[in-house]
């Protein structure tokens, strides 16, 4: 009889240990999941705050030169990697609102970066084209002034006054400057790969589709999920 009691006691003890272990494991799991949600919501809130601050600086950037001076709106967005953790916490409607917000942010950054890259490519093209134009103009001027040189030979630059008199050198410089001004105006107006109105319109359209979210219930839901709603 004593043996039976001991066996029953041991069996109950083992069962209790298993139950306690399961409860502890469940508690740890729930705590970890809660911490994941809090961390995700905190990072997403920080992203929202950072993005809105960056975008607010863009509203007075209307021409392509000022857009070129802007910095990236974000480096990395946590929302698209973390949103699955928040669906059950904040609700599908809020998830959709935040998803729409970050989608518009991605579109705006693509437009801003595209505008900046177009300006940069245009500048590089213009520099290269201008250098080529200068070389051609110099070669033409030198051959006209120094017909004794072979067609493939021109004096080394810069010319010294011992080779080219000052008045002739100044005349060359003035002529080349006038030619370059004409060329630059032609380049700006006719370069097929650069359309200032097109790139700024793309940027302006993307900016018009953007709306802040920090004044919406979805943002408050994120703050609550991050345990920041009372802070």
Structure write-up:
The protein has about 230 residues and is mainly alpha-helical. The chain has one domain. It is about 75% helix and about 0% strand. It contains 8 helices and no strands. The longest helix is centred in the N-terminal third of the chain and has 55 residues. The two termini are about 65 Å apart.
How would you describe this structure in keywords?
73% helix, 231 residues, mainly alpha
Short précis:
The protein has 231 residues and is mainly α.
Derived structural class:
mainly alpha
Give the proportion of residues in helices: over 70%
Question: Measured on Cα atoms, how large is the radius of gyration?
Answer: 35 Å
H and E order? HHHHHHHH
**Low-confidence sequence ranges:** 148-164
The tally of beta strands, per DSSP, is 0
Shape: elongated
The major sheet is characterized as: none
How many helical elements?
A: 8
């Amino acid at each position: 009889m004593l043996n039976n009691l001991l066996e029953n006691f041991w069996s109950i003890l083992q069962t209790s240990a298993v139950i306690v272990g399961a409860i502890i494991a469940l508690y740890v799991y729930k705590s970890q999941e809660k911490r994941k949600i809090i961390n995700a919501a905190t990072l997403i809130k920080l992203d929202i705050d950072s993005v809105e601050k960056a975008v607010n600086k863009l509203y007075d950037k209307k021409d392509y030169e000022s857009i070129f001076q802007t910095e990236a709106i974000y480096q990395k967005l946590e929302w698209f990697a973390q949103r699955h953790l928040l669906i059950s916490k904040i609700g599908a409607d809020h998830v959709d609102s935040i998803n729409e917000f970050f989608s518009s942010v991605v579109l705006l950054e693509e437009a801003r970066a595209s505008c900046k890259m177009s300006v940069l490519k245009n500048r590089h093209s213009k520099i290269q084209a201008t250098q080529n134009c200068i070389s051609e103009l110099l070669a033409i001027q030198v051959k006209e002034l120094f017909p004794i040189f072979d067609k493939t030979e021109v004096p080394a630059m810069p010319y010294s006054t011992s080779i080219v008199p000052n008045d002739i050198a100044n005349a060359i410089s003035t002529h080349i400057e006038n030619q370059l001004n004409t060329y630059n105006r032609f380049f700006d107006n006719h370069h097929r790969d650069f359309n200032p109105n097109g790139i700024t319109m793309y940027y302006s359209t993307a900016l018009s589709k953007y709306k802040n979210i920090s004044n919406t219930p979805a943002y408050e839901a994120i703050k609550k999920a991050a345990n920041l709603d009372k802070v």
